[in-house]
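Review form for a predicted model. The reviewer records the input and the model, then writes brief findings.
Reviewer: anonymous (R2)
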Amino acid sequence: MSQPQQNTSLERLTYNDKVVRQFLWATLLWGFVGMLVGVIIAAELANWRVNLGIPYITFGRLRPLHTNGVIFGFACNAFFTSAYYSTQRLVKARLFSDALSQIHFWGWQAIIVSAAVTFPQGLTFGKEYGELEWPIKIAITVIWVVFAVNFFGTLIRRREKHIYVSIWFYSASIITVAALHIVESFFVPVSFFKSYSLFSGPQDALVQWWYGHNAVAFVLTTPFLGMMYYFIPKAINRPVYSYRLSIVHFWSLIFVYIWAGPHHLHYTALPLWAQSLGMVFSVVLWMPSWGGMINGLLTLRGSWDRVRQDPVLKFLVAAVTFYGMATFEGPLMAIKSVNAISHYTDWTIGHVHSGTLGWVGFMSFGAMYWLVPRLYKVKLHSEKWATTHFWLGTVGIVFYIVSMWIAGITQALMLQAVTPAGKLLYPDFVETVAAIEPYYYMRLIGGLLYFSGVILGIVNFWKTMKSAPAPQDETVLVPARFKPSRLTDDLEEATRATDSASMVDKLHHILESKPIVLAVLSLLAIGVGSLVELLPTMFIRDNVPLIASVKPYTPLELEGRDLYIREGCYLCHSQMIRPFKDEYLRYGPPSRPGESVYDHPFQWGSKRTGPDLARVGGKYPDLWHYRHMRNPRDISTKSIMPVFSWLLENKLDTHLTAAKLQAQRTLGVPYSKEDVDSANVRRDRQAAVIAATLKEQGNVPESVKDKEIVALIAYLQRLGTDTKVVAP
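Model under review:
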């Protein structure tokens, strides 16, 4: 059957570039804020005095602000900028709705502002990359739906029949991020800014790293691959190297990536089948990742003289190179024998930042250096400044990742070292921290170099915009909208075609004319791995054998646990002992799945800047914890932990204690109605006992029973005691 007659007349169309410029400004603003906070927390780790003893600016409270500011502020705004600019031009259609565009822009910025307000106050959900509390999570869902409607509505109104590879990646990103965010955000609310994760222990850990790893995949990787496929051909003025490699890259990447999350949980209490599954797919992921890198770099073949001269190409080429490095290192670190060294150390931090600073950062700045002169119809203020920005950033990244590689491997080897007699060579954890402290300063230097380049770039953009006339949206002549053909007609046409293209190419060419079908197939591709990973662990309770001696937290211990999360202690301490000789000697027998079945959210941790706390209960007297929070140097002179003296002064907020137990009961924690009703009485009784002990051990005033420190001590003294195991 022949194709329907197409209308070849041209129409005048004005793109919506106003929202593109708005998102570009937001990208620069949140890039500055997020990276400034990153420099501050790097300084706080290098020297604990930078914390200043002020609760709102400690590492534990600022670190989520840094990660969320960079991921959702800088990276997402860069994605929105590029997607709205390139999609309009690739499909020859104005954005679906100007109103939705503005709702998207202002709604998203309000979400980032809410993060900047809530995190320093310690209002956090307590799950990495998902720390925002439930009202803000709901707002994210609403604004993401607005974005999706605007994006797919634009595709439906397109004037180009076939959609380009960049749009495949944008589409898959939008669909997958929605699925990730919804599942990870399941919660039971306690109050307007307090909630508990629906999942606990092993289930929560698996859901978290299914979400966390794939947030990296579908927020920090696939959108930026879409940008790569658009901006590199535009900057070099030639088509992408291989259309067929683009197809293989896209489908293999989105199918394989979603399975890899469990490699974050090697040697933990997660079932072995899940760990092995994550490792296998992580290693396989190397191939599609490098397929994309090769496609990007070979698009530049024969143009290296231009790369040396053009700062835009410098940023783009370096970005793709860092992408290749990060996607080689990631599968390497997913191999269990390597992971035994890399996990819980700064090696992982170096790996993450080679991807975020090198791949995401450089791709974003390369795109902006290309976009700004075109959006403002004026020449870039200074190409020399842009080149200087590039070199400052490159040297900064090298300082950063090399220092973290050395620090991570050094600490891992020191922690694992044993004497010929089978004793720990470095029994005190803080000895390993002292050994790597110089590399924290080296990291700070790298961060300052990168940040100084960002500042120079922002000034360059500002001067460029300032010199431009009032910006005007681009107007072009485009074909009239076509009448979409039926899928059956397209398939019939493909089977009758006699050209040399393979059937796969023909079928995919058809799929490119059906963007909604492509989006649904993308959802199915990521859905297979998600269901295989999550269903057995999430919904079959018997997969986690219960331990009879493990009981729910007392009301005071639960309040202390919430304080532990508020202060970000989980960002530096783990509660997961792995089956290694050195960890047995240092902490006790390996953790079992049943030990954390009442932890909403789980507290297995992802980094050890301090020792593991899974068995810390009863190891030290109450006064030790009191003094440790007042000033860690009173306990260990080499400690880099900030002071938490406000815990000794702040009165414990107790008005939600009963509501917290009721919420936990809703989640399946075996609290009785009597437990809930008597929560306040039992809380106060336990606080009085701890206060009396502190008075006896160190003449601490009895009025301490109303302070936050007592609740935190109650929680810490509980850890590991249920299983009747204490560290050697």
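Findings: The CA atoms of residues 62 and 101 lie 30 Å apart.
Further findings: The longest helix spans residues 429-467.
Recommendation: see findings above.
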